Amino acid sequence: MPTVPTNGAPEARTHFMEAKQGFANDKDVSYTTFTTIAEQNHGDPIVPHALLYAGMAAVKEKKYQEASKSLRQLTSMKTDRALLIRGHLYLGIAMNYQGESELARFHLKEGKDGISSEEEKGEWLAAMAISHGVNEFKHWDRFYQAGSPSERKFIADSLRTHCQTLSVSQLESWRSNSEGIANAIATEQLSKRDPNNTSLRSAVESLQGKFQVYASQEKTGPVKVAAVVPTSGRTVGFGRKAIQGMMLASDSQPGLVFSVQGAGDVASFKGADVVVGPLATSTLNSWSGSVKAVLSLVPRPERAIAENRFHMIHSAEQRTRILAKHAVSRGIKNFAVFYPDDGYGRAMARVFDKEVSDLGGVVISTVKYPSKTTSFTNPIKSLKGPFNAVFVPDRADRLKLIAPALAAGNLRVRAVEDTQKVRFGRKIVLLSTAEFLDSSFVSSSGRYTAGAILAPGFYPDVAQPAIGAFVAAFRAKFARSPAPIEAYAYDAAMVASKSKGSTDLLKSNSWSGVTGDVSFDSRGLRQDQGWLYTVRKVENGDLGIRVLNNK
User: Fold this and answer.
1) Residue 311, SS3?
2) Best exposed site among 104, 114, 346, 537 by fewest CB in 10 Å?
3) CA dist list (Å): 531 to 225, 285, 329, 550
4) Cβ neighbours of residue 400 closer than 8 Å, sequence gap 6 or more
């Protein structure tokens, strides 16, 4: 454990030791107590210790963003190695809760030697398993071995849910390449696919004796889903699209039974296991609470939080934060924000600025433009400073006009990894929420946006396996390509079917979907990062839009 220094200001050390003792004794000592100590004693050797305990306290209070901020500050310092290792440990735990899997894994590995209790070991094992995903069997097996009965049930249910999406050959691969609980669940699922296989049945009976809490607690009978979407009025088109997404999900889920009703009468769905919808926050907030579980399709979910609500859509705010995190993780520190002067643009500009600042970056230049403008040459001239990336929170059809104007202003959009010098102007990375992105974007502005990083929530990238299968099935059924609302509705129906209406499962599990690996945080918001997309050359040499990590 890190040794508390004695060469600083006595009053700072005394204040810290009192707070540390209170924290150790489970007294009401919050992370703000420790951040105040750090802020009031700038330059004192007690500061790194205060930052560590601020992060630990924030994790305990489930304030993971605040924890990350304090712990990132600590791990960037030159200080005692034991202190840094503890900082990495808790930073990995915090980032795992935030869905930052890749960064979480890095910090968890750096912090392994800092584990000092069985409770911390359990947290570390859980974070390692979840951040690596269900295909990394060894982490789940270790987590299971050390877990409590409730944790073991969570592990078994998580692995079982994933295995239900696999083919027989994939399950056989799982079984042959894994040990422990992962092997047991794969064996169970293979036996269900082939109930007459006596060898598998015998293996299941043997494994159930070894793994006491892995027996299935699945709900029997059909899963009743009520689709509450607009059936009239100006948003009826969105309602119809959502229904089509759910209809496609029901084709592949024979146990899924869903009915469609207008958004006004929720009382008629008391018999439903899950409600999917509505599309409006006002409707969601007017419900009486008689519904057991709700998978909401509200586009701004952060305004509609409740115990039984699980919000399927990555909001624009969430996608903006994801873009900022990705850019900073790739080494970009200096940004410009070019945004429309309307409610959406101003809100996203604020979110991006705060996220960048929290991550240690800086927004050097901020320029707004009239929300209905079609000429961007003059506003772009106002972008000043040594920024490396420009964030544009706007619709894709307006981004088509902005991209060539950036080029005309000698700002050349390139991929982050592109190290070649540009002949004229300077290289920048373009980031955008690119709302309503479709295939026409590349044909009209692809040459100006190659390397851009886009976060529309969903785009029908047929080269990505899960998305490709969904798009092919959707086109075959409805003779058109799906947009984000259909994809989120499809995932909502799939999750409704697999969770069986269990709020416990909805709070603890993760499901592979076409909008990402669906999982929810403690407020019911999507905590997975979803997909980021980029414009790049595709198989035939033309430009196309692809999932960012899809090679």
Assistant:
1) strand
2) 537
3) 26, 29, 16, 10
4) 441, 444, 445
